C-alpha cells in the first residue's frame, strides 16, 4: 500500500522489496511498482545498483524490527542483546543515494546493534521515523478515497464480521 501512495504522491519510480511472492505480485499488479526484488532469492544491493546505479532517492522501511535477515542479528535477538534488527536499516543506508532520505515507518520499539553511523554520516543522509498520526490525516485521506482519486479496494482481501477478529488476525499473520 505504501508503494501505491508513493506513486500517487508523484514518485517517478518505485521499487518493492519483500520475500513473500504474493505481496510482490500485489506490488506489481495493484500498486504498479516499476521493479520488484525478492530478497530471499536475489541480492538486494546487486539488483538495486543495476536498476538505480546511484541508489534510490528515498528508502522506506515498512517492515520493522521483526525480520532479521542475518545470522548475527538473529543470534543477538535470541540472546537478548538487541530487541530490534538493524538488517533492513543497514541495507537502506548502504543503498540509498548520497544526500538521500531514509524513512522508518515499520514498528521499532527498543534498541538495535550495528547501526552503520559511518556510512550514514559519510553519505549525508536524512532519516525520519515514527508512527503515523491518523487523527491528523484521516479527513484528507478519506476525501481522496471517497472522491475516487485513490482506489484501495484491491487491497481488501477478506470481509469478516468484527466478532471474527481473532480469525482475521490469524489469516493476516499467516499471509493467507
- Spans with pLDDT under 50 lasting ≥5 residues? none
Mean pLDDT: 91
N-to-C order of helices and strands = HEHEHEHHEHEHH
Helix content: 25-40%
Largest sheet: 3 strands, parallel
For the CA atoms, what is the radius of gyration? 17 Å
Distance from first to last alpha carbon: 17 Å
Strand order of the largest sheet: 3-4-5
Question: What does it look like?
Answer:
- By secondary structure, this protein is α/β, with parallel strands linked by helices.
- Helix content is about 40%, strand content about 10%.
- It has eight helices and five strands, in the order αβαβαβααβαβαα.
- It has helices at about 1-10, 20-30, 45-50, 70-80, 85-95, 115-125, 135-145, 165-175, and strands at about 15-20, 35-40, 60, 100-105, 125-130.
- The strands form two sheets. The protein has a three-stranded parallel β-sheet with strand order 3-4-5, covered by helices on one side.
Set down the secondary structure blueprint.
Layout: H1 2-8, E1 15-18, H2 21-29, E2 35-38, H3 44-51, E3 58-61, H4 71-78, H5 87-95, E4 101-104, H6 117-123, E5 126-129, H7 134-146, H8 165-173
Parallel strand pairs: 1-2, 3-4, 4-5
Amino acid at each position: 500500500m505504501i508503494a501505491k501512495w508513493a506513486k500517487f504522491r508523484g514518485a517517478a519510480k518505485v521499487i518493492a522489496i519483500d520475500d513473500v511472492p504474493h505481496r510482490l505480485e500485489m506490488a506489481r499488479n495493484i500498486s504498479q511498482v516499476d521493479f520488484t526484488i525478492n530478497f530471499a532469492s536475489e541480492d538486494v544491493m546487486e539488483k538495486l545498483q543495476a536498476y538505480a546505479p546511484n541508489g534510490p532517492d528515498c528508502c522506506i522501511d515498512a517492515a520493522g524490527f521483526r525480520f532479521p535477515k542475518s545470522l548475527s542479528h538473529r543470534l543477538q535477538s535470541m540472546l537478548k542483546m538487541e530487541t530490534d534488527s538493524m538488517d533492513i536499516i543497514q541495507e537502506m543506508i548502504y543503498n540509498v543515494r548520497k544526500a538521500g532520505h531514509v524513512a522508518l515507518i515499520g514498528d521499532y520499539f527498543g534498541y538495535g546493534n550495528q547501526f552503520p553511523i559511518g556510512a550514514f554520516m559519510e553519505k549525508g543522509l536524512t532519516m525520519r521515523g515514527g508512527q503515523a498520526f491518523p487523527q491528523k490525516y484521516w479527513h484528507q485521506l478519506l476525501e481522496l478515497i471517497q472522491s475516487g482519486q485513490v482506489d484501495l479496494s484491491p487491497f481488501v482481501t477478506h470481509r469478516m464480521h468484527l466478532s471474527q477478529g481473532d480469525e482475521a488476525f490469524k489469516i493476516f499473520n499467516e499471509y493467507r
